[in-house]
Design goal:
Blueprint lengths: L4 E7 L17 H18 L24 H4 L8 E4 L11 E5 L9 E4 L5 E8 L8 H18 L13 E4 L5 H10 L20 E9 L5 H6 L4 E3 L1 H8 L14 H14 L5 H8 L8 E3 L3 E4 L2 E9 L3 E2 L3 E2 H12 L10 E2 L4 H6 L5 E6 L6 H10 L9
Antiparallel strand pairs: 1-5, 1-6, 2-5, 3-4, 3-8, 7-11, 7-15, 9-11, 10-11, 12-13, 14-15
Helix pairs in contact: 1-3, 3-4
């Protein structure tokens, strides 16, 4: 029997892992594992490894029974996952409740419907079961903890991260970044390994990450949110987001993801270089997910708040707009200067911040530099992070 690694998960915004009837009835470990695998694939591709698309025709194993570097860990037909993950027990007694947010006054836009997810803390237990022949048990754990560290610092876990869910903190993570990167590299030394090309799928070197900090006046937070939307239904549901309880290890959340998304999409609609196909790819449309993920805001001390914007950009969006053009537009909308990107710095207070009615925002932005390798970029994300800033 191998040692169980226990990681404590604390939500900063609600966690969503799927469930019955479009609601979240409980915490589903499969939802967390699926999200971890998605990030694992992106890391492997960005480090020059081999990762299939498990949802497509090229999933593992191939005709010769070989597995890609990701399936060697997360399993596929004929190969069990290398670890078991057990999540906290929780039942959503109010899974039918949801918050309806309508930001603009356009008649044809129904608004956003935010269902209740998990808020609080719990334990994730990771039990190693096996590991690739080129690895030790420690290297398996380190490779998984690298994903946890990346998610904690920059992104989210679970489903609906495009809609504000899934920003969490993990306690119990002690990852050696360099050893983890070395472990990923060793996967390429496996015998009879399946090699899969990138196929223009998410790769860490094509991701951008941003954190935005701002202050709220000392006023009722419910009124602060209501002043930025055309309509918000159910004060009870809004109060659920704004509720704070030290005993339950949960703090207030500002449900601003729909507000931020609405105004960014409006700016994209006015941008001459962003055509309708690129806009739909960036922000989603009916039946298609958004490339851009936007979190709700969570406290960062005093009256300070922070939210995240991140996503993977292909080299071209439907052949019309390049990655650099899309990122350039996004940085322009956020008021990001060309220097000091990897530290908090004051954003230009342009149309976007005026529309949000947020003054003196600070932004930290990460994207891969031209001469930077995927491993160096990942190392910078995990080891350097953001510095500076007044709103902390």
């Amino acid at each position: 029997m191998h040692d169980v690694l226990t990681v404590k998960i604390r939500t900063l915004t609600p966690l969503w892992t799927g469930g019955l009837d479009g609601t979240m009835d409980r915490i589903h470990e499969t939802g967390i594992i699926g999200s971890l695998r998605w990030w694992y694939e992106a890391i492997v591709r960005g480090l020059g490894g081999s990762a299939c698309d498990p949802t497509g025709d090229g999933k593992c194993p191939d005709k010769r029974g070989r597995y890609c570097d990701v399936c060697a860990v997360f399993g596929a037909t004929g190969l069990k996952r290398a670890f078991r993950l057990e999540g906290p027990e929780w039942w959503n007694e109010e899974r039918g409740r949801r918050l309806k947010v309508k930001v603009g006054r356009h008649r044809n836009h129904r608004g956003w419907f935010l269902g209740r997810g998990f808020m609080g803390e719990g334990e994730l237990n990771i039990l190693p079961l096996r590991w690739p022949e080129v690895w030790t048990e420690e290297e398996l754990i380190n490779s998984l903890l690298l994903v946890f560290a990346l998610v904690e610092r920059w992104a989210g876990v679970g489903a609906k991260t495009q809609q504000g869910y899934g920003v969490v903190a993990f306690d119990g993570i002690d990852v050696d970044v360099q050893k983890a990167l070395d472990a990923y590299g060793k996967l390429k030394n496996r015998g009879d390994r399946r090699v899969v090309s990138n196929n223009n799928l998410p790769s860490i070197d094509g991701f951008f990450f941003a954190k935005v900090r701002f202050q709220t006046p000392k006023q009722d937070l419910g009124e602060w949110v209501k002043n930025r939307v055309a309509r918000i239904d159910s004060d009870g549901e809004l109060n659920w987001y704004l509720y704070s309880d030290a005993d339950l290890q949960r703090k207030a959340v500002l449900p601003i993801s729909p507000i931020v998304r609405y105004h960014l999409r409006n700016l994209a609609r006015r941008e001459k270089g962003i055509d309708v196909r690129a806009r739909h790819r960036l922000f989603g449309e009916q039946g298609k997910k958004s490339l851009i993920h936007i979190s709700h805001a969570y406290p960062v001390g005093g009256n300070g708040w922070e939210f995240r914007i991140w996503g993977w950009m292909p080299k071209h969006l439907d052949g019309s707009v390049s990655r650099s053009e899309a990122l350039g537009s996004l940085k322009g909308w956020l008021g990001i200067e060309s220097s000091n990107l990897r530290r908090y710095h004051a954003a230009r207070n342009g149309q976007f911040w005026q529309a949000l009615n947020i003054s003196t925002p600070e932004v930290c932005w990460f994207e891969k530099e031209k001469e930077e390798s995927g491993s160096d970029y990942l190392g910078a994300l995990l080891q350097d992070g953001c510095e500076g800033g007044e709103n902390a």
